[in-house]
Design a protein that fits this description.
about 210 residues; Rossmann fold; 9 strands; about 40% helix; globular
Length: about 210
């Protein structure tokens, strides 16, 4: 899926199936490394997943309580980006922009964030806004080299069309804590055409990505 000699883009996607907890260990390992690089880390997910992340981080010798107390680690389970229960692209982008600005203002090298896209969409599950959000996010990444992160796409809770679109809009694919790949299916917004997500090659790629990594 790309040469490992190329620099891996900072806007990544994790596409997976099965229990979300399966990838907590890998995400915790990456978070630990980003904390060690003096980056503020932001993790957005449900309360059970936040609790799981705390446990896995503690298992990697991260002083979780200190990291939270000092603001180096931010764990979010409240969906404050929702407006009247619905996902709002502008509100979510504003939250990320403010979080990056605050991290830099507080003396960190940057902000690293990861969140579950199903959780971010909220109870209304307005998936049509997902692609708009990802395009705006990719543009924000391009203009802010201090930002990095992983968007988590769960094949069991997101429509297949959204999973294929998620693959298209991310320049890099996160496999595990030691392997990230350049995404050959990435399409820049200015060259995107409706219907590209129906390409059979995307389904083949997803089948490969969703194979158990254990």
């Amino acid at each position: 899926m790309g040469s490992l000699m190329e620099p891996v883009p900072r806007h990544q996607c994790l596409i997976y199936d099965g229990p979300p907890s399966r990838h907590l260990k890998a995400l915790a390992a990456v978070t630990r490394d980003k904390l060690a690089q003096n980056r503020r880390c932001l993790y957005l997910n449900s309360k059970p997943m936040v609790a799981g992340m705390r446990s896995y981080l503690a298992a990697t010798d991260v002083d979780v309580e200190k990291a939270i107390r000092t603001g180096k680690l931010v764990l979010v389970s409240e969906q404050r980006h929702l407006v009247n229960g619905r996902f709002d692209v502008g509100q979510m982008m504003l939250m990320l922009e403010q979080a990056l600005a605050a991290a830099l203002r507080d003396g960190y090298a940057g902000l690293w964030a990861t969140g579950d896209m199903t959780w971010e969409m909220g109870p209304e599950r307005d998936f049509l806004k997902l692609v708009e959000y990802e395009w705006r996010l990719e543009k924000f990444f391009a203009g802010h080299p201090e930002l990095g992160g992983i968007c988590q796409y769960h094949a069991g809770t997101l429509p297949r069309e959204m999973i294929r679109q998620g693959l298209i809009v991310h320049p890099s694919i996160f496999v595990n804590e030691t392997l990230s790949l350049i995404n050959p299916h990435y399409v820049r917004q200015e060259t995107f055409n409706p219907g590209m997500e129906k390409n059979p090659k995307l389904e083949t790629a997803l089948t490969q990505l969703l194979q158990p990594q254990d």
